Amino acid sequence: xxxxxxxxxxxxxxxxxxxxxxxxxxxxxxxxxxxxxxxxxxxxxxxxxxxxxxxxxxxxxxxxxxxxxxxxxxxxxxxxxxxxxxxxxxxxxxxxxxxxxxxxxxxxxxxxxxxxxxxxxxxxxxxxxxxxxxxxxxxxxxxxxxxxxxxxxxxxxxxxxxxxxxxxxxxxxxxxxxxxxxxxxxxxxxxxxxxxxxxxxxxxxxxxxxxxxxxxxxxxxxxxxxxxxxxxxxxxxxxxxxxxxxxxxxxxxxxxxxxxxxxxxxxxxxxxxxxxxxxxxxxxxxxxxxxxxxxx
Amino acid sequence: xxxxxxxxxxxxxxxxxxxxxxxxxxxxxxxxxxxxxxxxxxxxxxxxxxxxxxxxxxxxxxxxxxxxxxxxxxxxxxxxxxxxxxxxxxxxxxxxxxxxxxxxxxxxxxxxxxxxxxxxxxxxxxxxxxxxxxxxxxxxxxxxxxxxxxxxxxxxxxxxxxxxxxxxxxxxxxxxxxxxxxxxxxxxxxxxxxxxxxxxxxxxxxxxxxxxxxxxxxxxxxxxxxxxxxxxxxxxxxxxxxxxxxxxxxxxxxxxxxxxxxxxxxxxxxxxxxxxxxxxxxxxxxxxxxxxxxxx
Amino acid sequence: xxxxxxxxxxxxxxxxxxxxxxxxxxxxxxxxxxxxxxxxxxxxxxxxxxxxxxxxxxxxxxxxxxxxxxxxxxxxxxxxxxxxxxxxxxxxxxxxxxxxxxxxxxxxxxxxxxxxxxxxxxxxxxxxxxxxxxxxxxxxxxxxxxxxxxxxxxxxxxxxxxxxxxxxxxxxxxxxxxxxxxxxxxxxxxxxxxxxxxxxxxxxxxxxxxxxxxxxxxxxxxxxxxxxxxxxxxxxxxxxxxxxxxxxxxxxxxxxxxxxxxxxxxxxxxxxxxxxxxxxxxxxxxxxxxxxxxxx
Amino acid sequence: xxxxxxxxxxxxxxxxxxxxxxxxxxxxxxxxxxxxxxxxxxxxxxxxxxxxxxxxxxxxxxxxxxxxxxxxxxxxxxxxxxxxxxxxxxxxxxxxxxxxxxxxxxxxxxxxxxxxxxxxxxxxxxxxxxxxxxxxxxxxxxxxxxxxxxxxxxxxxxxxxxxxxxxxxxxxxxxxxxxxxxxxxxxxxxxxxxxxxxxxxxxxxxxxxxxxxxxxxxxxxxxxxxxxxxxxxxxxxxxxxxxxxxxxxxxxxxxxxxxxxxxxxxxxxxxxxxxxxxxxxxxxxxxxxxxxxxxx
Lengths: 296, 296, 296, 296
Prior knowledge:
The structure is a homotetramer.
Chain A: E1 2-20, E2 30-42, H1 45-50, H2 59-73, H3 78-91, E3 96-110, E4 117-133, E5 137-151, E6 176-186, H4 199-216, H5 222-236, E7 240-249, E8 252-254, E9 268-271, E10 276-285
Antiparallel strand pairs in A: 1-2, 2-3, 3-4, 4-5, 5-6, 6-7, 7-10, 8-9
Helix pairs in contact in A: 2-3, 4-5
């Protein structure tokens, strides 16, 4: 016999753009540009067993809710948007016991002093994932992705074991580049007054710490840089208790120019696509509460 | 203070193509085209704490191993390749206690009777993920992705609750289309004689069951189709004890042609990109052994 | 002063799926899955100069027309669809003098004997581009893209000049792989009875010739393979007078395994991403009529 | 008989990163991050006819030259890089009569005051394409792509003809958004002293004009905005004699919230993917010299 395990369904990638006119300090407009995905769980097994949709909140309805919440909530941080939507989904739909709302938020920059005109920033995507469970409560994980950073020096890699399959030479000076995907978990509502919490400031601080720590760490391994960033974020933003990162090592290989009568003193590099190193790791505050469903 | 949580690093997306000349039944060549990602865990904390690489098997060395194994193993199924490489990584490197090898395998079709010529198939990507842990042993998960399937009819969607945010009309006849990502877990070595196991046949059978069940299920919800597929795979391939799927509902919306004096009796559809429904679920044999590290 | 040069506008990427029920020889359904882009030119300068839209056929209306034509035309080849739509756009809209309709067509394969079920083929995309001009008449260019082909041998590359910047060794045996983008121009209506022409057969023949010629050509340069394919298509399909191709050389580099005590007799390759060679060329029948606007 | 038409081949997408240490005004490093594609034409027919590579400058050699030029030229604008490389390819290789070098250049931003650390900008890609022909001389086309801009208002669309296929309502207030791909042609060397020309300033000026004109144009059609941008660039940068643009109309559809008891006074939009309008056009100075091979 076959059982049904964990189930979850929803509407993915609702591309909602919210304009708040005149809301900028100088009277300019504000754009909130989000890609919102919601998913719900609960007493929905019959849909899987027999196609009985009695308890199925249609994904189309979830899409409608994203739009309605965009209207009603207006100029709020993505964490607040996701939290309110996730809680609404569970509270207002009796069969549903859990909801997950994930948001990608794209940045826009005002064009000069034009009050209505914007250019897409493109330097990174801000992310948040909120899981609300009837029993376990609400968890908030935020972060960013697609942030590409590079140090032109202050990176070494040596001292690794050499066996019959090792060909990589040691280096005392290399480019270190990566495309950051980082997620940080906030302490739960019991430990943190979410109602009055400034999610925007927490994001900006964590991002700045990330950038500064990447730049300021003399690195002997991308692993070391990863842990340094995670540690520093936790130390700087007390509301954050855990940081998870996946850092691809975007290899920049020194091009051999000697054949052409030229030196190459770390000047000309080939930026490779694949394969790439991939470094993953978790930094965790000593007193981090249990993660519960935060990472599910 | 900040602790280090779970860590893992490796070389991702090693694009290795292995030719086995004359190995086809008719004397034609065989191509094995794979994208291999390996990652290891173990006593590697010092790399994260201080950049001490004493225990760090370089990702470049992992890449070399993929190539060496491609040479030595030759014409083996991806499950065998991943298993042997994962076990080698742990066995031969004392500080490492766990390895994960994930493979995407691309299909090629012979061009007519030409013995050396091939066209890429493009209909799906075969996948496998093997985790070998010093203590927990070896787990094998296989599957496929990027398989796009469509039923022109035999799909309904109605009976879902209607609240103030529901606008979707019910339908008794719609297109059902999805891009299948499915992964199936094999019973562990204790329950299955992996040495003599025909991984290729298991894959072909599971894929065929998947296609036939998608096609043969009169569907009232994509959830129902998902569970039917998972159940049927488990019932048909005894070596498989669990199936996990993520099925995007690739919406095909009926175009309103009445405005132009035309009927549209389920003839003309707009294939939408975003948003899309996303249905996830797990089918599990009643006697499925614990998953252990299989899905990590 | 600044003049307005060539202008063109339209609706791009209308994803229309047309189902013709029971139209297959065995009573199964037929799917026509297309991505249609239309664009028009003519007396539309005022839209550019002042935003006067008096002569602007809205791109939304062009989208509607794609859907209406999908309904009305039913099971026709893409060349016929594009031709009729392009001619309609010009004939029915007085200010418009030229229209261009480009179609990508995706293949689907029936799942077993299921009459309503399909899997996306994924091996290539069939293309057509029709330009209809009030004065110059109609031109038809068809082809395919995203077809990846590979020969495991029968490819050499040597005899190229060696200067101070040349490091590539000569080779007498290499993998030859490319992702074909080919377009063939049909003789114009004056030379070809389009009304009774079998576009589908022409496509299948050209595609088969392309595959067979790629496979059957012992190649000393990808340039040679390109010209051989073009020539053979023109020789085999008299309705085709010109073939243009862009063939990326998808490099497969032999991996050096000697360091690990292994030989590598053209067995293990690294499939590189970038950079890649890119070979372009045109094959032209001696009596090819002037191309006119076909390639614009 | 089949003739050979236009031919061209080369190495595409050489990803070269050039570091110039301490070259910034404050002593920080400078990164030049480019994707360089070269292609050559000339007396190369034999490679196509018979695979005789006597006159074939290997694409691998072209790649080497990109790297050598990156070393030798150092901190130069992409226009200078492309011009020198294109001229070298023709001058130094007797059988070659024409070369085309196209460059995508990615922007990087210094991280705070860190002298060695950078984050990728991501707001647009700067482009240049240089064609050098033995007889026709050198042409330079520059521009940018992937720049996404949006006006929250000051855009109308009405007055277009309404026929039996028109369903789009008129609007007096909409979001106007596009992803700019613009290319501007410089006057040839006879009319412009390229040796002393400040390509960097020309780029920055043209980009700024583009942004300001997009923002400052009250638009009745995206066509109008396109022409306004082209005109203004030509009027502001005398060295530019032609501007070509392709502007996808990234539709933002107003979401109907009335069903949920909410107004939507241009506040909540759905950002659609496909289909999209695509507006193309050329602005040309009255005294623009003939384009010659610039756009080939």
